[in-house]
Design goal:
single chain, Alpha-D-Glucose-1,6-Bisphosphate, Chain A, domain 3, 23 strands, alpha/beta, 3 domains
Length: 475
């Protein structure tokens, strides 16, 4: 079976999830909630899903399993992950979101939420142990699928209301914004919220078939599409999100994507955060750009949430976090536009989109606004369909000694110092940075770089990816 927990939730092949595996893990989650005192028999649990072809069946299987396990499932239908998570927090209910986020359509996943928010690594271990125990007991999947009574409208109304109070009325008037709708469950809400603030919205690229959009490594084909639309429609920006609507994608007026860590930085400033948690893959210039503490973490929302909680425990009162994909989280209340914004400790895409567009409305063009942050030039990409075993072997070799690492990097540069908080981050003699990291969600090998300028970063990124290819072919 292909399933395992990655950087955010359980992931695996759709063919595995459309059967006993979903029932097994849904039952394991229910047992964990009940045994840990996080839920009582008969408590409601909310279920959402994305637009993947496999998601309705997986959702129905999970609903049947949860009901058999003693909980009362409520179907929220197709909606963004932050919407179902927000409703769960409001109703003090656990949640389960069926989504593979940005990974290819032949894969899917499940995200789990306790009544107080996204599960952590200890919860993941407990759910895995419960699933192993259930498997050992010989629990049989009977093929049952069922629908549950719905809460879709309530979830969407709550999430929409949250985002319709962040900016003053008419704040985006004068902006012509494209919304790349593709197959994200956030597509219609993006259009309605931007129009609410007075933007001239152009809906683009709506698709009935699922399109995986990785906002952290936007494909050249997608960039070309965005750049063509920017010129064709005279746009000031284009916005979008990944499949489940928790990672933002924002371009400037040329259709060029803005890096997610810069989006997260803008969102943190917009909120007025004085403590910010972000992974080691985010730009190294973040510390100088944040007016407060920066806590660096491993990649994955559970680690960002843990760091935010540590900051709150230490007495910080304005705590936010973001990942290198731009998904922004909050651990404390904030006052924004004179209104209280409740904590949402899971990735959100719409709030950071609004934060960036508010800057664009005040200081167009957006490309100049972005350049004004003066962060080190950075780039990232990944090799898809890269076997997990090959990634593990590469990382083992790179960590096996300074000589092995130096030999691997010889065509690129001379390593000066390294960090292995998550993957292997190497600072080269010329001050540039190259970071190798296997994906936690899919069979992919990722590479992140920083350099003196955009051209040097692009060159270093391609050199890093080519070096990985060469190594894999030589095995």
């Amino acid at each position: 079976m292909s399933l395992k927990f990655g950087t955010s939730g359980l992931r695996g092949l759709s063919v595995d999830l459309e059967g006993p595996a979903s029932a097994l893990y849904a039952t394991a989650f229910a047992r964990h909630l009940l045994s840990a005192g996080l839920a009582q028999p008969g408590d409601e649990i909310l279920i959402g899903r994305d637009f993947r072809a496999s998601s309705p069946a997986i959702s129905a299987i999970a609903i049947a399993a949860l009901r058999k396990a003693g909980l009362a499932p409520r179907d929220c239908g197709e909606l963004p992950t932050p919407a179902v998570a927000l409703l769960g927090l409001r109703r003090k209910a656990a949640c389960l979101m069926v989504t593979g986020s940005h990974i290819p359509a032949d894969r899917n996943g499940i995200k789990f939420y306790r009544p107080d928010g996204e599960i952590d690594k200890a919860d993941e271990a407990a759910i895995t142990a419960a699933a192993d125990a259930l498997g050992a007991e010989g629990v049989v999947f009977d093929g049952a699928q069922e629908e549950a009574d719905g809460l879709h409208d309530a979830a969407m109304a709550l999430y929409g209301e949250r985002n319709r109070t962040l900016l003053p009325a008419g704040s985006l008037s004068g902006l012509r914004v494209g919304v790349y709708q593709h197959s994200t469950v956030a597509r219609d809400l993006f259009v309605s919220v931007l129009a609410h603030y007075g933007a001239d919205v152009v809906a683009l690229g709506r698709s009935q078939a699922f399109i995986p959009v990785d906002t952290e490594a936007v494909s050249p084909e997608t960039v070309a599409l965005l750049q063509g639309w920017a010129v064709q429609h005279g746009l000031h920006a284009i916005v979008s999100a990944d499949g489940d609507g928790d990672r933002p994608l924002i371009t400037d007026e040329t259709g060029t994507p803005i890096r997610g860590d810069l989006v997260g930085l803008v969102a943190s400033r917009f909120l007025g955060a004085t403590a910010v948690a972000t992974p080691v893959t985010s730009n190294s210039g973040i510390e100088a750009a944040v007016a407060g503490r920066v806590l660096r973490t491993r990649v994955g929302s559970p680690y960002v949430i843990a760091a935010m909680n540590e900051a709150v425990a230490a007495g910080e009162t304005a705590v936010a976090g973001f990942e290198a994909n731009g998904g922004t989280l909050t651990a404390t209340p904030f006052t924004v536009n004179g209104a209280a914004l409740a904590p949402l400790p899971t990735r959100d895409s719409l709030m950071p989109v609004l934060a960036v567009l508010a800057l664009a409305a005040a200081e167009r063009p957006l490309s100049q606004v972005v350049a004004g942050f003066s962060l080190p030039a950075a780039a990232s990409d990944r090799l898809e369909n890269f076997p997990v075993e090959t990634s593990a072997a590469l990382m083992a070799e790179l960590r096996s000694g300074a000589g092995r690492l130096a030999a691997f990097l010889a065509p690129i540069g001379v390593p000066q110092k390294t960090s292995d908080v998550d993957g292997l981050r190497v600072t080269l003699e010329d001050g540039s940075v190259i970071h190798f990291r296997p994906s936690g969600n899919a069979p992919e090998m990722r590479c992140y770089v920083e350099a003196a300028d955009e051209a040097a970063a692009a060159q270093l990124l391609e050199a890093g990816l080519e070096r990985i290819r060469e190594w894999a072919m030589s095995r």
